[in-house]
Amino acid sequence: MLSKEVVLTQDGLKKLEEELAFLKSVKRREVASRIKTAISFGDLSDNSEYEDAKNEQAFIEGRIITLEKMLRNARLIDSDEDNKEVVGFGSRVLLKDLEGDEELEFTIVGSAESDPINNKISNESPVGQAIFGSPVESVVEVKTPAGIIKYKILEIK
């Protein structure tokens, strides 16, 4: 089974590595301690502390596996690849909504780093897909549940 390539910026790689280290060194110990304490309460069949701790342990172990897989399949975006001609990974793009006359700025990242609240959108998102590979001044259409939105690419930084 082939694993999907995970495209990361240097910052994104660092954040994933830090999260993995934190989960392995701090969270694993905390949960193990919670499980040990819960076991000391006796009967495990009606022990909600034990159940909660075991569920958290399963979540943490699953996240560790996910992070390790992402890091194994990571492709780092080379900052030397900066291309101001077309939208690519790491591009900061200034868009104009042609209907609402609103300007939006996004940074294009891989799905692992996507953070819409901080204006980081994935190349796999509807807007990311529409603008990826497009040059400045082009108009793109984004299909949304509310209909088609047209954006003009004003600038690639």
Mind explaining what this structure looks like?
By secondary structure, the protein is of the alpha/beta class. It folds into 2 domains: 71 residues, Helix Hairpins, CATH 1.10.287.180; 78 residues, Chitinase A, domain 3 (Roll), CATH 3.10.50. Helices cover 39% and strands 24% of the residues. The protein is built from 3 helices and 7 strands. A 5-stranded mixed β-sheet has the order 5-4-3-7-6. The chain has a two-stranded parallel sheet with strand order 1-2. A hairpin with a 5-residue loop joins β3 and β4. α1 packs antiparallel against α2. The longest helix is centred in the first third of the chain and has 31 residues. The radius of gyration is 21 Å and the shape is elongated. The two termini are 37 Å apart. The mean pLDDT is 89.
What attributes characterize this protein structure?
single chain; 157 residues; alpha/beta; Helix Hairpins; Chitinase A, domain 3; two-stranded parallel sheet; 3 helices; 7 strands; elongated
Query: In oligomeric terms, what are we looking at?
Result: single chain
CATH architecture of the largest domain: Roll
* Element string (H = helix, E = strand): EHHEEEEHEE
- The SS-based structural class is alpha/beta
Task: Give the N-terminus to C-terminus distance in angstroms.
Answer: 37 Å
CATH C-level category of the largest domain: Alpha Beta
Radius of gyration: 21 Å
At the fold tier of CATH, the topology name of the largest domain is Chitinase A, domain 3
Fraction of helical residues: 25-40%
Q: How many beta-strand segments? A: 7
How much beta, percentage-wise? 15-25%
Largest sheet geometry? 5 strands, mixed
Shape: elongated
Mean pLDDT: 89
Biggest sheet strand order reads 5-4-3-7-6
CATH homologous group name of the largest domain: Transcription elongation factor, GreA/GreB, C-terminal domain
Spans of at least 5 consecutive residues with low confidence: none
